[in-house]
């Protein structure tokens, strides 16, 4: 015995076909939705893993704690307890003929003063153009060459205070390895962080100090933060002295870097001309 299907009209066949197609479409949509959920879940896990890996390696929250320098109080420079040796009372470093540093001024020579911040991009330009002439003026005994590091650009590294740590580091070298002072000063500028964007860890500064010839035992004090802790207040206080000295102000009544002085008077010549400073010093000798 066989069972015969009821005869469907054309309209009924179309409706049946439509319902069947709708059912298939719904099944496909559900399957596609499940597939998308699986894909997004996998991608989410991958992204979370990647972020976790980056944070684990970089640990951005640790660097400011490890290399931070505090906001030091407003203490007069004359009252700062820890002051580097071989340093002038105003915080300047006189370069010796061999590239070391001393606090002894030759009263028979003109005095060239250079005020700078190790984060300052214009100071980098000044250094690249003039450092050999500065070295020669000191080596040939033509002038008292006085370098005045300041930390006016700490706001670019508000959590680590690179400028203050850099000044403290050169103070540390002046105190414990003064014969390597100028070489360390130069290599700090050669590896200057990008103004407003870069930074440098204590360990990186210490590595530069060693490249400049500073003994490992001395550089270790920069790496572990002892230099910043010891001479950070001095760096902050000497910056305040320079930043409030009217003799150093520009035509708008502000202090900036680089600032050049000859015999303690501001010099506004064209330092981008490498012959300008030697000629100005020569004129001051007469």
Short recap of the structure:
With 286 residues, the protein is of the alpha+beta class.
Task: Walk me through this protein's architecture.
- The protein is an alpha+beta fold and 286 residues long.
- The chain has two domains: 1-58; 70-285, Glutaredoxin (3-Layer(aba) Sandwich), CATH 3.40.30.10.
- It contains nine helices and six strands, in the order ααβββαβαααααββα.
- It has helices at 10-58, 62-67, 121-139, 162-176, 181-190, 202-211, 216-223, 226-243, 276-285; strands at 93-95, 101-102, 111-116, 144-149, 259-262, 265-267.
- Strands 2-1-4-3-5-6 form a six-stranded mixed beta sheet, with helices on both faces.
- A hairpin with a 2-residue loop joins strand 5 (259-262) and strand 6.
- Helix 4 (162-176) packs antiparallel against helix 5 (181-190), helix 4 (162-176) packs parallel to helix 6 and helix 6 (202-211) runs antiparallel to helix 7 (216-223).
- The protein is elongated.
- It starts with 9 loop residues before the first helix and ends with a helix.
- Residues 1-5 and 51-65 have low confidence and may be disordered.
């Amino acid at each position: 015995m066989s069972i015969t299907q009821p005869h469907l009209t054309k309209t009924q066949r179309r409706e049946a076909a439509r319902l069947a197609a709708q059912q298939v479409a719904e099944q496909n949509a559900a399957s596609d939705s499940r597939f998308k959920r699986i894909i997004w879940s996998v991608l989410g896990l991958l992204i979370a893993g990647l972020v976790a890996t980056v944070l684990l390696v970089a640990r951005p929250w640790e660097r400011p704690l490890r290399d931070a320098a505090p906001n030091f109080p407003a203490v007069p420079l004359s009252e700062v307890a820890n002051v580097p040796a071989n340093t002038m009372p105003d915080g300047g470093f006189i370069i010796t003929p061999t590239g070391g540093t001393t606090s002894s001024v030759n009263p028979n020579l003109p005095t060239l003063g250079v005020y700078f911040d190790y984060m300052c991009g214009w100071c980098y330009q000044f250094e690249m153009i003039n450092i050999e002439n500065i070295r020669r003026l000191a080596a040939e005994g033509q002038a008292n060459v006085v370098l005045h590091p300041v930390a006016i650009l700490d706001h670019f590294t508000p959590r680590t205070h690179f400028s203050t740590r850099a000044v403290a580091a050169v103070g540390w070298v002046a105190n414990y390895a003064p014969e390597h002072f100028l070489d360390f000063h130069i290599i700090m500028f050669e590896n200057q962080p990008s103004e407003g964007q870069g930074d440098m860890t204590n360990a990186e500064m210490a590595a530069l100090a060693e490249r400049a010839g500073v003994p490992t035992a001395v550089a270790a004090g920069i790496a572990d933060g002892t230099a910043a802790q010891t001479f950070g207040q001095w760096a902050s206080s000497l910056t305040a002295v320079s930043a409030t000295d009217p003799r150093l102000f520009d035509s708008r009544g502000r202090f900036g870097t680089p600032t050049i002085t000859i015999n303690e008077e501001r010099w506004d010549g064209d330092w981008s001309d490498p012959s300008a400073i030697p000629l100005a010093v020569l004129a001051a000798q007469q």
